[in-house]
Amino acid sequence: FRRATRPTRRHARSRNGCYWGVFMEHAIRGAPGLPDGDLLWPCLSVKAPYQTACFHLHHLVQAIVFERMGITEREQQSDMRVDACARITGPSLRLACIEHVGYASTYVPGFRVTEDDCSRFGDAQDRSACLFGLTRALASYDRFAEAHQLCTMQSDAQHKRACYEGLFDRLYATNDLDDRACDGSTGPDCRMHLDNFLKNPDDLLTVL
Prior knowledge:
Helix 3 (48-56) packs parallel to helix 6 (91-105) and helix 9 (157-173) crosses helix 10 (189-199). The chain has helices at residues 2-5, 12-28, 48-56, 59-69, 74-86, 91-105, 124-140, 144-153, 157-173, 189-199. By secondary structure, it is mostly helical. Helices cover 60% and strands 0% of the residues.
């Protein structure tokens, strides 16, 4: 792992992508060493600089855990993901885990933005982190109509901002962010949040 991550340590914005790739390869290989029933492994056992990145595509490892346990129902998987995050004591890492809950929810069969897993979080900061991850995942697969629908549904200002930031941050990371990011949205909210994001793309409400 040290050899794999060393080349990008000097490049702040790209290094997380490098770390994500290392953890993704590990998951694709079947997550060697995965303890039975552990939905947080290996993210709490790697060194601090890599823990947040570990959660980014952690649904790939969790899918192996669920398969071994014979758990196929979406609701039960979501409940277990939420409960696992609640066991993390460090606030930043817990939010990274919660962001992953949002990201992972789009991969579960039967996903609908009207019943998103982020509604499971009552705390405003937790829900914001979840929404950020959810729209980031939707943008990753060009599911912009669903992302806009979800953001429009948010009545809380903080939740709406986090929702749009997940969408914009993903497009920004791939150099695809421009005025078209708001195509298909209704009302002025998307444009307002896009203008605010472009003023300082690193000033995010939630974690990366």
